[in-house]
Amino acid sequence: MTDTATRPSRWLRFIYAIWRRRYRWLAVADALMWVVALPAATFARQEFAIRSVNVGDLGIALAIVITVHVAAGIATGLYLGRHRLASFDEVRWVAITALIPVAVLLLVLLISPGENLVPQSAILAGAAYQVVGALAVRYVLRVLVEQRRISAHPRKGRLLIFGAGDAGYQAMRLLRDDTTSEYLPVAFLDDDPGRARLRVGGLPIVGGRDAIGDAARQFDAEALLIAIPSAQHSDAMEVADLGQQAGLEVRILPPMDKFLTEPVEARDIRSVTLADFLSRDEVHLDLEQIAEYLQGKRVMITGAGGSIGGQICEAVAGFRPETMAMVDHNENGLAALQLRLEGRALLEDPSLVLADIRDRDGMRRIMERHRPDVVFHAAAHKHVTFLERFPREGLLTNVFGTRNVLDAAAEAGVERFVNVSTDKAADPVNVLGLTKRLGEMLTSHVGAALGRPYISVRFGNVLGSQGSVIPIFREQLERGEKLTVTDPGVTRYFMTLEEAVQLVVQAGAVGDGGDVLVLDMGEPIPILELARRLAAEITPGRAPEIEFTGLRPGEKLHETLVSDDDADRGRPHELLLRYRVPAIGHDAPDPLLEITDPAALVEAMRRLVSSVRLPS
What we know:
With 616 residues, this protein is α/β, with parallel strands linked by helices. It contains 20 helices and 22 strands.
């Protein structure tokens, strides 16, 4: 009895809950459309001979179609908010929902004796009228809703959107409606000639990339949004260059994979980043697949307080190692690292180790205490000019410091060792390259002797790292100074910090003892082009003053990634090159310590590097 008695009340509560929804007004509007459409179709069928229409029968027919229609609308979700207002999805369900009462009424006419309540043709015509009217109501409501959603807050400036496809339309709506958006979209640009003179979301399409400058002046725009997330990198950068030449601040949508997998918000629209200065798409390796060797292992990173070492620490921490010892002789660097990782810089954590790799016995004690399974060796002197002046410092850190870490790792039973090197170690001409080449050769020797993956990773120039050209150019531009470029023809290979870290982790997974792995970084970038692009981003519309200072001692006009005597060992990964370098014995560098004259020391290092070749 109780269940039977409560069923009506449950149905009443359900109906009341539906009625409270804001979509109830759509049900009312659709019902009113039937009230208009079915009589109009019936009178039209009778050639407006009003006396020929049985009003009572018409009322019964209306009651049937309205009741069935509302019930069908609830069942299909039309009145429950499951379909976006005036979307293609809702259009389909409006039509389907209207066909259901038509089918029911036709069935009633078929099985009922006597004369039809209304002509069958009037039912079909009435349904067509009802669908047209229902869609018209929804269109008007959609327009009103969108007008109400447009934010009226003050904007920083006016925005052109390059790309009038789905991504551009969604970006326009995001920026127009978001109460935190700095820019108001005013027009579209698109290279597709089929879209010329069309309008998207009420905004005109005023031309392709060649019209960026004219559009900026016509609409008094301050910024350009590149809304082609699936475009090739070169295309996006060409549009960015044209926008910056027109004096516009350039913004970019996130990549297409993010656009398709999760909602994009206004804050996802970003400025040009360091990665955008690469002449290629940024490399993303599958870290989840290749970094399993870090999970649950004891890891040590030397040079942890530096820009690359710190990024390695952050990446490794994400793979849940058992322990992670972070070694550096720069206490300020370690403090900044702990602040970044833990939000504090108390320096009491035993994982932070203040030590100098030039201390042979100290490195042995540290290795013995922490017993790492994997070592990433990033500690080094790396400034070309400084090391040209002080070659002995480069020798002590980059050669003997590396040997100290290698010896301590071997004695402690380290399974994997990754030595961070540089492209300047390929056919080296300066002290940095010579010392790093010797470090690679020592690593190759130890890896071969132990039969373990003790390998080196050869970097290009890392964008944004400490001492790199980008921060120097940025500071010069912000101070209003000239940009200093060594030579108009100088080129360099570049990679981002994220790419550098991915390369290190990838190398630890796929390298064999004695290997040197190099990221396929595409074509080298002219430094002059890099300077002009950065100036266009920071001071758009104003050509930078550039002063050529000449190549400094030890600098090449063009870097190489591979020495002539490196043996190609194929690709362990589509984005990685693998080579074998000659090995030098453990004691081979010792005579260098006895040389006090800087020039003689450099010449002796050059002779040592060139004296060893791989067996043919």
